[in-house]
Each structure stands twice: as C-alpha cells, then as structure tokens.
C-alpha cells in the first residue's frame, strides 16, 4: 500500500484546452520534472491552484482551485470505486490524480481510459467541445502507456476513434473524421477474428464512413460503409442477439446510397435486409422500434420513386408500431415520430385525405418538441415540420400554415453550417415555402427569395445526386412564376433550361417524372405564347400528355396535370384556331374539376380555366349557354377564393370579361353593370400583381364611357387608380431598363387620364394625373436625390437610413442583366446575379416600410407623396406661364398655368386631333431621315452622320413651311389668344416666357418655331411664336421647381468647361468644332470668365465625367446620337468611347448650372416613350443642370460656331467689364432666343435655312 514519507513539492499544473487547429480547447500539460510518485507516508492534503480554459467566448480564462487529496489508496480500489460510481467523480480531478499518483503504466492506462469515458459522459450532458477534447487526450494518454501487443490496445484505440467520431458528428470538423476512421481501422486490424469486439469496431467504423458521407456526399465513403457492414453481417453467427441491429444498419447504408444515387436496386436491398432484421428481432428487445422505423423509411423511399401504394401502407404500419413500442423517453422517439409524419404526408399526396396531413403535422410538432436545442437532427425535423405545413397550405390556402412553415425552416437553415450535406435539402424546402407564399400573396420579395435559396440548393448538390432533378425542377418553376409576374424573357429561358435538365435526369420509372414533364410543358406553353412557334406548343402538349398517361386518376396530382395540359391546348387554339384544341381543353378541365376535392386550393384556378375555354367557344359559336356557364364557373371561382389572395383580382377580371362578352352580344344593361363592378373590384384590390389590377382598371375606365349612368366621380376614380397602379408597376424594385420596357406598354395612360378629367371639366385632376403618370423614371430619380434636411432635423436616424437606401437603390437600378447578351453564365455567376436582384427587391421593400414610418411623424404626412395641384401652382415662376399640351386619341387640349391663378386654365384644341399630331410628327421624322438629319443605325454598328446638312433624298413626306404654319394656326395661336398678357413684340423687347410641356406626338414637333415663314422673303416672319414669347421646354412641371433653386457655386466658381471633338474615331469629322470652342473661349475671356478646353484626345468620356463635378458650366461641341432601340444608350460621342445617357443619369451634380450641347439629337426622345422624355437634355436636367441648350435633330457644322458665339454675346448682353461678369443661368433662354433670331434673320426662309436654326431648343429655367 503506497504511503508518503515527505511533503509534496510545489507543482506546476495546468490544464490547457486546445484543438487540432491550434485553438485552445483541451490539451493537458503537467510539469512533473521535480516530482516522483509517492511510495509511502501518511495521508496529506494539499491544494494546488491551476488554470483551465475551455471553449468559452473572448478567450475567458477562469481560475479553478482543486483540493487535491493524497492519501493511502490502492489503485485497484480507485478503479473499483470509479466503476461502481462513475457519476460522482470529476474527470479533471481524476485525470490529475492518475498522472500524479499512479506509477504503474498498465494500471495508469486502464484508469486514463476510464477517465476518457467520464469526459465523454460529461460531454453528452454539457455539449462543451472542451470536454470531448479532454476525452480524446485521456484516451491518447492511455494508449501511450501501453506496450506494443498489449491486449487492451485494440479497444483503447477504438475508444479514441469513437472520441474523434463524436467530435466530428457534433462539430463537423474534417480532420476529426479522418482521425476517427484511422483509429477505428487500427482497432479493426488489432482485433483478432472471432473476438466479439470485432463486430463493434466494424460497425463503428462503418458509422464513421457513413457520417462523413452524410456531411460531404463522397460516394466512396458510403460504399466503404456498405462493404464493412456486409463483412460484419457475414461473420455474425445466426442467433447472435445483435444480428438484427447489424442487418438494419446495413439496410440504412443502402438507403443512404439510394438517396444519393437513386439506384432502385439499393432501396430493394435495404428493404430485404431490414425485413430479415425485423423477423429476427425479439419482441421484447429494446432495439425493435429502431429496426421497425428503419424498415418503414425504406418502404417510404421506394414509394416516392415507384408510387406503389402497398409500399406507403407498409411504411405507415411499421413506423406506427415503432412509435407505439417506444415511449417519449426513448432516445429515438423524436426520430420515429418524424418518420411516421413523413409517411402520412406521402399517403396524403396520393389520396388527398386531410386527416393524414393533420396527423403528419401533429407527429412532427411532437418530434420537434422532443428534440433538444443543439441536437444535430433538429434542423431536419424543423424543416420536415415546415414541409407538412406547406402541404396543408397548398390544399387549404391557410396563410398561417405557410408563415409558420417559413419560420421553422428559416431556423433550420440557420442551425446548419455551410458544407453540411443536409443544407441543400433545407434550402430547397425553405425556397419552396417562399414560392408557395408568393402564389398566395403576390409579394415579389417572396419569389425572389425562393429563387435565391433554390439556386444555392442546386449549386451545392453534386452531379448524380438523387435529389438534383427535384431541386432543378423546383428552381425552374420559380423562374417561370417570376416570368409570369414581370415578363422577363431571360427568366423564361432559364426555366426551360432547368426543367429540361430535370426531366433528362429523372428515370422513366420515377414517381415524380409526370410532374416534372408537366412543369416543362408549362414553361414551353409560356414561350409559345411569346414566340408563336407551333413547335413549342407541340412539344409542350407532348410532354404533358405523357405526364397524364403516366398518372392514375386516383393520384392527388392528376387534376393538376389535366389542368396544365388543358392550358396548353387552349393557348394553341388561340394562336392556330383549331376547334379540336378548344374542345380538348374543355374536356380536360371538366374532368380535372371532377377529380379536384371541394376544399382544394387548386379548384378556383380550375374553374376559372374552364370558364376561359367556354368563353372562347362562345366567341366561336355564339352559343349563349357557353357564356352563361362561363359566368357561372368563374363566379364560383371568386366565391371560393379568400379575400386577400393574390389570384382574386385575376378571377374578378375574368368574370368581368365574361359579362362584357354577354353585354356585347345581348346589349343587356345589367351585364354591363356586372362587368363594371367586377373590373372595379379587380382594379381596387390591394393584393395581386399590379399588372393584373391595371388590366381591371383599364377595362373599368373604358367601360365607364359606355355606361349611361357613369358619373364624373366614377370616371375620375377609375383613372386615378390607373395612375396609382402605373407607379406600382414601375416600382423601384425594377432596373431602369425594366422600367423603361414596362412604360412602353403604358405610354398613353397618363394622357388618357388627363383627357378623361378634362372631359368632365376637371383641369385640376388632369394636371395631377399628368404630373404623377409622366416622366416616371425622372421623378423616381429625383425622389432618390431629394434633400432630407427637414427629416434629418426631426429624426436623423431615419434620414440617414433613407439616404443610404436611396443611394443603394439608385446603384441597383442601373445594374445590367448579362443574360440578355446571350453569354452562358456559370451557376456561381447566376447566383451572384440573383443575389443582386434579390437585394434590389429587399431594398425597395425596406424603403416603402421606412417611408410609412416617416409619414407617421407629425408634419411629414405627405413626405415624398405626389404633389397636389395647390402645391404645384404655388411653385410656378412669377413671370411667364407653363403650357402643357395633352394629346389623347379622344381629344387634344392645352392646360395653361400662371402664378397668381388659383386653378389651371383649360384650352381645348379643337383644330387638333391625336391622329393629326401623330401624322405631322411622323411626317417630320421621315423627312429628317430622308435628309440624313436623323439617321437610323443598326445594333451592331453605331452610325452617326456628320453635322453638315445633306441634300434631300426622295421620299420626303412633309413641307417644313406648311408644318410650321399648321402649328401656328391650329395650335399655338389659339393658345396665345386665350392667354392674358401675352402680346406681340416685333423688336424683341418685353417678351414673355412660355415653358412648353408637350405630351405624345407633340413632344416631337418644333412648337417653339411655329409661325408663318414666306420662303421668298428673308425678313422676319409675318406671324410666329418668337414674336410673342421666349420658349423653353420642361419634361414635367415638378422639375421646374427644383431647377428654379439657385445653386451655391463653389470651387471653380464660374469657370466653364469647353469640350471639342472634331475627329472622333470612327465618325465623320466636324472641323468647325475647333472654331466653335476657340470663339467661345475668346468670348468668355473678353468678359473675364475663365474657361478650360478639352479638345480631341484630351476629351475622353472618363475625363469629362470627372470634370462635370467641378465645372458648373459646360459647353459640348461634338457628335451625339439618340438610341433608337434603347434610349438609355443615347450618347455624347467623345474620344475612344461614347458617354451614355445611362452613365449621366448616375451623376448627382448639385452645383451644376448650365450645359450647352452643340451636338445632334440631344433632345430627340424615344418615339415609343413620348411621356418619359428619355433623352440627353432631360438626363442633364436630372443630373442637376438648371438650364440646357440642346437640339431636336442634326445641326449644321457651319452654323454651330455662329450660334455659340451669338449665344454667349447675348448671355452677357454684349457687356465687356474689366472685372468679369457672372453667368446668369436664367438668361440662357433669352440668349438662345436672340441667337437663333439673329441667325434666322441673316438668312433666307428657305427650307435649308429653317432646318439650320429650328433644332436649337432650350430646357429648364
């Protein structure tokens, strides 16, 4: 018996926690250099202070004091006590005692191994990584104490391997998996054949390979696990108690490989060995529930592939028995419940029995409740609960289910680290939930989130994975859904590509092949609707017919497949007119409705679709029974759709369409009123796609004109809703390019609304409609750049956040979609692109929420809301007037606004019609084109004609003199006659100012040049607008207020930047730009105004863009062009490359004052977007310039220097002060007016002379 005969020396003892990656976690260091084990002596008690730090945050190092009692104790007694009462001993104390007091290496090895067990037991409770790392250290120290060949070496090495396995299983660090496998392989090698421990180490080694496979998806690992378990089963004698466990574990390995590869032979093998396990398991055995549950899982997985109902029934039978045999305290109770919930879901999807889905949700809720926080299976169980909730939502449409599903699945994704093999499935599940919620809510952020998550799932799933086809199909469906919302063709192309790949990877015998074929068919149907290519329709129908053929009518998806096939036939009928297609669509939908449960969320859509086909047949045959039935089924669809559902506006529109057809056929007034009411409800819906609500609003407004009972208030309400929806459709979540394309489809809505308001004598509403519904892109840009000084004083936090969001939205709006260029993108690039798009949508949503908060602040109720007419009238210039020219197919009008007048002045233009204005504008466009004054160019080649005027070509469609005379006689003169205080001034003195704001075709006509010009004389015109007023143009009234605010000039003060580009590479030379820049420089120098010249190679796009921030005044003498295919591509052509409008729009130049663009087509605009004024002049105004001189078409290189010289002389009134002059921006319109008059009066009134001065126009103050 060991005794101490001397006191213990001072010991240096520390317990340092460390890990394989040098992170302090669990490495023990004890300095025993001055100490030897005791031999004899009395019992003594000493205290030793030492430090330990475990995996605590911020490197905390708490001190612990250990009372170390050294007394007479036989080691064997200690071992016995530990074996008898392992719960009470502290493993840290035990470890130190063993190292200090046990001299015998063999005994020390056994005790250290037991100490490792205690650390593992402690870890099972604490889940603290330091504890399991301490166990690994203890096991390793135990092995170090054993000599080679020791009989304990195999088991001790196996225990060390299991320590590493526990670490990897919990924390997922790859080196631990390698060490676990290496040590367990050593344990297998050291264990002799026939030893009962060999089975244990073989099975544990298989577990290690399986777990690494589950983390990494490496196929070699699962194959190795199967091979090891085959060996274990082979060497196990019949009748061995644990043979059923070995068999079921072998089955699980086959099951896992099947999930990865999809080979049906694997799942068949799993079922075979697991059935044998159940047969061999004793009824009273503790492991029987696990064996039953695993067999049930295998039957379920095979059902998902083959669709054999017998398999799902067996799955439920075995898993229900497992749940029955296991109490809630069973370690796998939560797993059994979750698996049984999956089987009920599978049967529900086949039979549609709502009791099954309710039971699935109940079981999975209980499974989550029984799963502790931090448990490795908690994420999967949360996701599975979400999947069950989604299924019920798909059936009932109950929003609470989908919201809960998203909540629990978001938590599941959050809990799983990157690189985990389960992450793709969790991402896909969460993406599916967002996809389903979008179907109901129509919230764009939901479908964007779905695509982002599903793209990650696809990207993280390796080729050959059994679930990859499902992930691809789901992602394809999300892209198709977003296409249906925003019409982005790149999304449709992506959908087809993904769906085709999904179908290609799906085996012919797979149970999900029908739905994937149908999804592909739906994408092709949508492309057919755009392309009109019959091959797309034929391919769609082929795939969807095969889907229907592969599916029995008792399957829950049968009605969905019939519905989708019916849609394909209807679309082909609409394009090709084949009546058999229409009849087939009706037959399919009627059969689908018969198969659809009454409480199915799909039923309203099915009813609506059959109503669509019946309406189409009515249009073909005139049979009133068809239109009556169409109305009946469509009304039922509305009745079955809950308030707030995203599809409700569409169903209401369709009911309205059916009633409208009935009215048009029978002239029944009640049918008209019913149509009006349904269109009104669709228009005013607060849910659904804004484009769908817009369809209702447009029909509502159009029908009101046909109803004898329409009141002015109703007409104004309908058009007001149209304007509101127009701004929603073109919201900040779209890029500038997307907004521009959307506005092309809605170019005349604002002018139609104004015309409607004027028809009921409401010029106030007409003004508000035009201000809110025109130049939307510029208005949005102005909103993002609005100073927030007042808000910053009230709430600086909100002001700063709004400012930051505005900057980000402006940047996001100018992003480009490379998919349009035809470039093949990698999945990484697609994910990056989607991340940008999703962040864009989230920013827009966050801005809306923030604006709602700001508007709750007293005094900010109207913050960034559309301006009322009173506010607009209060900001008018004190002198002059603003004249808005409204062109609509119903009527043409002018609205005049003058300071001091309470209401706008309405001037009907009785001699002008929309058709006449359009004919004049089109005739002028063709004439200019014939004279090379507005040349067109292809996408592949920028072709900008020289500024010199070319001889006329054949085919001119208009006489310029007659055009100007028409504008005078029938447009301008009637307006001047109606305006007070506008008088003729032949000497140019006391001329009034008129700011013209033209809409529609008026925007392309030279209103400022209207007059009678006799070709044979060189004198002033007999009558012309220039004798009465100085003309300027503005895109909208709102922008005029901002332009009137004088900037605080800093930096270079009134210094002017002069840019000349006589020899732009690839373009015609314009040598007079050198003369123009030099003359301008001299004129400015005479007046003491400094200027800087960039000429030729010095005038690059980059240098000019940078200099715009420093020079408030700019003069550009160069080529320019209007983008005919894309107005954002309009550009000023500088050296090396053009400076595009899309780049200028990104600039915010608060100190900018004036720019003279002596270049071609700088205010031309886009024929398709007359209400948006997308041209270089408007771009300069948006960037911050208060005054802009621009051109409507090409200008003469010969006359450009003369105009510039005269302009600057008039700008300063020919004064030559000694100390220099300031440049008054407000004088620029007058300066251009007199410069143009001077040029006009110095030349004849020939067509060529007119075309030389007419293009010069002024924008701004």
The residue ranges in which pLDDT falls below 50 over 5 or more consecutive positions are 1-74, 934-956, 1047-1052
Spatial strand order of the main sheet: 13-12-14-18-19-20
Largest sheet: 6 strands, mixed
- Specify the CATH class of the domain at 1049-1260: Alpha Beta
Q: Helix/strand-derived class?
A: alpha/beta
Which percent range fits the helix content? 55-70%
Biased composition (Polar residues): 42-58
Region (Disordered): 33-58
Pfam families: CHAT
Protein name: CHAT domain-containing protein
Structure report:
The protein contains 48 helices and 20 strands. The chain has 1261 residues and is an alpha/beta fold. Among the domains are: 601-710, Serine Threonine Protein Phosphatase 5, Tetratricopeptide repeat (Alpha Horseshoe); 749-786 and 864-937 and 956-1045, no CATH class; 1049-1260, 3-Layer(aba) Sandwich (Rossmann fold). The strands form five sheets. It has a six-stranded mixed β-sheet, with helices on both faces. Strands 7-6-5-8-11 form a five-stranded mixed β-sheet. Strands 2-1-3-4 form a four-stranded mixed β-sheet. A hairpin with a 4-residue loop joins strand 5 (881-887) and strand 6 (892-898). The relative contact order is 0.03.
Keywords summarizing the entry:
Rossmann fold, 8% strand, 20 strands, 48 helices, 6-stranded mixed beta sheet, Serine Threonine Protein Phosphatase 5, Tetratricopeptide repeat
């Amino acid at each position: 018996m060991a005794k101490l005969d001397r006191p213990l020396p001072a010991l240096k003892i520390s317990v340092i926690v460390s890990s394989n990656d040098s992170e302090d976690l669990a490495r023990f260091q004890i300095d025993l250099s001055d100490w030897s084990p005791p031999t004899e002596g009395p019992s003594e008690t000493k205290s030793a202070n030492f430090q330990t730090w475990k995996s605590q945050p911020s490197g905390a190092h708490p001190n612990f004091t250990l009372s170390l009692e050294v007394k007479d104790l036989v080691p064997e007694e200690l071992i016995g006590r530990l074996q008898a009462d392992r719960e009470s001993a502290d493993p840290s104390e035990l470890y130190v005692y063993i190292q200090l007091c046990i001299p015998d290496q063999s005994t020390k090895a056994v005790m250290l191994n037991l100490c490792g067990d205690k650390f593992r037991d402690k870890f099972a409770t604490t889940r603290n990584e330091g504890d399991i790392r301490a166990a690994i250290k203890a096991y390793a120290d135990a092995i170090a104490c054993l000599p080679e060949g020791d009989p304990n070496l195999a088991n001790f090495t196996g225990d060390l391997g299991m320590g590493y396995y526990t670490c990897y299983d919990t924390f997922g660090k790859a080196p631990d998996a390698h060490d676990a496998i290496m040590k367990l392989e050593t344990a297998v090698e050291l264990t002799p054949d026939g030893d009962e421990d060999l089975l244990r180490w073989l099975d544990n080694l298989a577990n290690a390979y399986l777990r690494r496979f589950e983390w990494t998806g490496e196929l070699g690992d699962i194959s190795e696990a199967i091979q090891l378990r085959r060996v274990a089963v082979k060497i196990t004698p019949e009748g061995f108690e644990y043979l059923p466990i070995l068999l079921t574990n072998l089955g699980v390995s086959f099951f896992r490989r099947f999930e990865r590869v999809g080979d049906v032979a694997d799942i068949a093998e799993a079922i075979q060995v697991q059935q044998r396990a159940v047969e061999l398991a004793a009824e009273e055995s503790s492991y029987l529930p696990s064996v039953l549950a695993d067999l049930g899982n295998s039957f379920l997985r095979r059902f998902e592939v083959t669709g054999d109902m017998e398999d799902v029934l067996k799955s439920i039978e075995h898993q229900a028995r497992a749940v029955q045999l296991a109490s809630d305290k069973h370690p796998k109770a939560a797993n059994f419940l979750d698996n049984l919930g999956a089987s009920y879901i599978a049967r529900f999807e086949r039979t549609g029995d709502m009791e099954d889905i309710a039971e699935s949700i109940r079981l999975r809720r209980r499974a989550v409740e029984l799963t502790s926080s931090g448990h490795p299976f908690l994420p999967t169980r949360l996701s599975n609960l979400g999947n069950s909730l989604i299924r019920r939502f798909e059936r009932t449409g109950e929003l609470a289910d989908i919201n809960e599903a998203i909540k629990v699945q978001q938590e599941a994704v959050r809990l799983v680290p990157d690189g985990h093999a389960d992450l793709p499935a969790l991402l896909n599940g969460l993406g599916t939930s967002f996809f389903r919620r979008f179907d109901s809510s129509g919230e764009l952020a939901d479908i964007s989130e779905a695509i982002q998550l599903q793209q990650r799932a696809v990207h993280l799933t390796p080729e050959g994975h059994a679930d990859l086809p499902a992930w691809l199909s789901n992602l394809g469906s999300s892209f198709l859904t977003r296409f249906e919302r925003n019409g982005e063709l790149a999304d449709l192309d992506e959908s087809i590509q993904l769906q085709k790949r999904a179908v290609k990877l799906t085996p012919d015998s797979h149970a999900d092949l029908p739905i994937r074929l149908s999804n592909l068919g739906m994408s092709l149907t949508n492309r057919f609707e755009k392309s009109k290519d019959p091959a797309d329709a034929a391919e769609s129908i082929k795939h969807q017919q095969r889907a229907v053929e592969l599916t029995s009518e008792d399957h829950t998806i049968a009605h969905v497949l019939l519905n989708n096939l019916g849609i394909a036939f209807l679309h082909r009928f609409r394009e090709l007119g084949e009546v058999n297609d229409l009849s087939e669509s009706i037959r399919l939908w009627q059969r689908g409705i018969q198969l659809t449960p009454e409480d199915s969320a799909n039923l309203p859509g099915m009813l609506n679709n059959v109503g669509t086909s019946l309406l189409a047949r009515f249009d073909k045959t005139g049979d009133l029974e068809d239109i009556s039935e169409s109305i009946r089924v469509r009304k039922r669809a509305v009745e079955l759709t809950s308030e707030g559902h995203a599809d409700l506006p569409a169903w209401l529109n369709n009911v309205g369409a059916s009633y409208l057809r009935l009215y048009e056929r029978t002239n029944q007034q009640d049918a008209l009123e019913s149509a009006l009411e349904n269109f009104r409800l669709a228009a005013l819906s607060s849910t659904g796609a804004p484009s769908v609500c817009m369809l209702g609003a447009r029909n509502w407004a159009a029908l009101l004109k046909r109803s004898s009972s329409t009141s002015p208030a109703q007409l104004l309400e309908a058009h007001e809703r149209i304007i509101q929806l127009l701004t929603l459709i073109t919201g900040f979540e779209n890029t500038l390019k997307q907004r521009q394309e959307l506005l092309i489809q809605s170019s005349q809505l604002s002018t139609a609304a104004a015309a409607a308001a004027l028809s009921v004598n409401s010029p106030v509403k007409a003004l508000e409609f035009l201000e809110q519904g025109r130049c939307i892109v510029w208005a949005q840009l102005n909103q993002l750049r609005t100073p927030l000084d007042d808000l910053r004083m009230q709430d600086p936090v909100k002001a700063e956040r709004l400012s930051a969001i505005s900057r980000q939205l402006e940047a996001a709006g100018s992003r480009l979609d490379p998919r349009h260029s035809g470039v093949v993108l990698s999945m990484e690039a697609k994910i990056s692109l989607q991340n940008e798009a999703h962040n864009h949508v989230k920013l827009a949503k966050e801005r809306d929420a923030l604006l709602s908060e700001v508007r709750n602040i007293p005094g900010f109720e109207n913050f960034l809301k559309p301006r009322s007419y009173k506010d607009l009238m209060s900001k008018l210039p004190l002198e002059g007037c603003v004249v808005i020219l409204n062109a609509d197919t119903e009527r043409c009008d002018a609205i005049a606004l003058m300071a001091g007048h309470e209401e706008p002045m309405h001037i009907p233009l009785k001699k002008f019609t929309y058709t006449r204005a359009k004919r004049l504008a089109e005739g002028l466009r063709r004439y200019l084109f014939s004279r090379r004054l507005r040349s067109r160019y292809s996408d592949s080649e920028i072709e900008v004609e020289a500024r010199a005027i070319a001889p006329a070509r054949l085919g001119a469609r208009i006489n310029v003199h007659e055009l100007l005379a028409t504008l005078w006689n029938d447009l301008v003169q009637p307006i001047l006659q109606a305006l007070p205080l506008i008088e003729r001034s032949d000497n140019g003195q006391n001329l009034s100012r008129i700011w013209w704001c033209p809409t529609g075709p008026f925007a392309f006509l030279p209103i400022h040049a209207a007059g009678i010009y006799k070709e044979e004389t060189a004198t002033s015109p007999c009558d012309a607008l220039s004798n009465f007023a100085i003309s300027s143009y503005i895109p909208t009234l709102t922008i005029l207020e901002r332009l009137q605010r004088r900037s605080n000039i800093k930096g270079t003060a009134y210094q002017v930047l002069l840019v000349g580009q006589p020899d732009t590479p690839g373009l015609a030379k314009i040598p007079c730009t050198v003369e123009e820049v030099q003359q301008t420089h001299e004129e400015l120098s005479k007046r003491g105004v400094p200027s800087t010249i960039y000429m030729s190679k010095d005038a690059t796009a980059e240098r000019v863009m940078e200099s715009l921030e420093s020079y408030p005044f700019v003069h550009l003498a160069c080529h320019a062009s209007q983008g005919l295919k894309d107005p954002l591509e309009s550009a000023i052509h500088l050296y090396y490359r053009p400076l595009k409008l899309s780049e200028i729009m990104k600039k915010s130049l608060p100190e900018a004052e004036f720019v003279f663009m002596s270049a071609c087509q700088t205010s031309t605009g886009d024929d398709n977007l007359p209400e948006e004024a997308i041209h270089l002049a408007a771009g300069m105004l948006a960037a911050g310039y208060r005054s802009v001189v621009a051109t409507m078409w090409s200008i003469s290189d010969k006359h450009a220097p003369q105009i510039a010289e005269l302009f600057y002389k008039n700008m300063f009134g020919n004064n030559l002060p000694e100390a220099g002059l300031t440049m008054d921006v407000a004088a620029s319109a007058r300066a251009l007016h007199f410069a143009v008059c001077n040029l006009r009066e110095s030349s004849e009134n020939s067509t060529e002379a007119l075309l030389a001065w007419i293009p010069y126009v002024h924008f701004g103050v």
